[in-house]
Amino acid sequence: MDLLSPLVLTLTLVAANNDDVRAGRHLFNDPGLGTHGVACANCHATVADENADGDGLIRSGHTLYGAAQRPFWRGDRDRKVHENLSTAVDVCSELFQGSPPLKGQDRLQLHAYLASLGGSAKTRPIEIQPSLESDLNYDRPKYKTGRPKQGRALFYQSCHGCHPNGGAGIAPAVLALPIARVIEKLREGNGLLRGKQVAGEWSPFFGKDRLSDQQAADIAAWIVSQETKAP
Ligand code: HEC
Ligand code: HEC
Question: Fewest CB atoms less than 10 Å from the CB: which of 24, 155, 173, 174?
Fold first, then answer.
């Protein structure tokens, strides 16, 4: 019995850990977590290489593979604001999901899941690549040469989840909007990157490594081409 107890204890801990990871995975995929109806999984993949192993969707946020091993988050090199991964996650809960920061058991379980995704001590921080135009004017020639056919595919990969078929879903309809407005929202989301979040808005931004200027133009071209089908 004396010999067995450490084994039993270890097994119990492993089992508890697996339970935490499983519960954390459910939280990660739960659109009911906040009031906006959007899950972490809507905006973040969990695979190491999205091109090779992804599901084909283009999400606004980067993959969270290795996130627990990153040296810092959200560009906070000195970890002054985001001391650990959980405080970095809190921003998304509040800003994007309309949820108070997760507490207690939920917080630990979500962390256990993120830590289980993998990564190593050599994991590098991610760099957000905002693509705001210098004068915040998106009425530019480069956004007017989009290709609707490519844009349709890209729209379904990156926007359809929240704007189903371009109509209203958990977010409002986008059909019939001018190109400059489409690009502005795609690049700025709720205005946070501009340093000014629009009250009540929560849409995410897509940096240029998520969607290039050409791809953004393609999406806008498809949306505009659908104008007559607006509800
Ligand atoms: C509506 C979209 C959206 C939702 C929902 C969302 N995020 Fe994010 N998240 C982003 C964007 C955009 C960024 C900034 C770009 C980036 O860092 O990938 C970000 C950044 C992060 C970062 C910082 C990454 C780093 O290393 O700097 C973490 C960690 C994170 N999110 C975790 C989560 C978790 C966990 C959830 C669910 C509780 C969540 N996010 C929900 C869009 C979202
Ligand atoms: C995670 C959900 C989500 C995704 C993905 C998303 N949006 Fe949105 N979008 C919103 C929300 C929510 C709003 C309402 C305004 C706000 O809260 O910022 C919105 C508003 C907009 C608007 C402004 C509508 C208006 O009436 O002026 C445009 C344009 C837009 N989105 C374009 C896009 C495009 C293009 C994509 C894909 C590249 C996209 N969105 C992906 C959530 C999303």
Answer: 173
Q: How far is the CA of 201 from the centre of ligand 2 (A)?
A: 9
- In the reported structure, the alpha carbon of residue 38 is separated from the centroid of ligand 1 by a whole-number distance in angstroms of 12
Joined together, the tokens standing for residue 21 give: 């990871």
Q: What is the pLDDT of residues 180-191, one digit of tens each?
A: 999 999 999 998
The four Cα atoms 132, 135, 138, 144 give a dihedral, to 10 degrees, of: -110
Ligand index nearest the alpha carbon of residue 175? 2
Other beta carbons within 10 angstroms of residue 199's beta carbon come to: 7
Distance CA 153, CA 44 (A): 19
Rg for the chain (alpha carbons), in Å?
A: 20
Q: How far apart are CA 14 and CA 156, in angstroms?
A: 40
pLDDT by residue (tens digit) across 201-219?
999 999 999 999 999 999 9
Q: Is the dihedral of CA 133, 139, 145, 147 positive or negative?
A: positive
Closest CA to 204 of 156, 171, 177, 227: 171
Residue bearing the bigger pLDDT, 81 or 7: 81
Mean pLDDT throughout 96-110?
97
In the reported structure, the alpha carbon of residue 185 is separated from the centroid of ligand 1 by a whole-number distance in angstroms of 17
Please give the Cα distance from 168 to 85 (Å, whole number). 33
